[in-house]
Amino acid sequence: MSTRLLLVLYQTIWWILEVIQWVVVVWVIISWILFFASQTSFRWRNRTAYSILNQLNEIFGRMAWPFLRPFRRLLPPHKTAGIDWSPLLLLLAIFIIRQLVGLILFPR
After folding, report:
1. What share of the chain is helix, strand, coil (3-state, %, to 5)?
2. Which residues, 6 or more positions from 26, have their beta carbon under 8 angstroms from its beta carbon?
3. What does the pLDDT look like over 53-91, one tens digit per residue?
């Protein structure tokens, strides 16, 4: 294959993984905000802001779920004291995949 085609393939894979990574990070942050706000005496002064965050949580959760599902099956939250490690495992897998794709497409 030509070097240009390999570069385009690498960049495409890199951007897809980048989008997945940011979807997961944003979903985790929003879900933490909603969780901690519900566990404390925090009162939402603006119900619209809560509604928007809740909708964003739903949207990003649905986008992230297909990628998180294999890791949740591997390490279910109920077996790890209620801690969901799947986002961290997914981000680690994305990092490893990026490195492997780079090494496979552009060996030294």
Report:
1. 80, 0, 20
2. 56, 60
3. 999 999 999 999 999 999 999 888 777 788 889 999 999
d(CA 26, CA 7): 28
The pTM for the full model equals 0.85
* Higher per-residue confidence, 88 vs 38: 88
Q: What percent of the chain has pLDDT over 70?
A: 99
* Cα–Cα separations (whole angstroms), residue 33 to 3, 10, 58: 45, 35, 13
First to last CA, the chain: 16
Taking a C-beta distance cutoff of 8 angstroms, is the pair 68, 24 a contact?
yes
Q: Tell me which residue of 91, 87, 92, 95 sits closest to 69, measured CA to CA.
A: 87
User: What's the rounded Cα separation, in Å, for the pair 97 and 101?
Assistant: 6
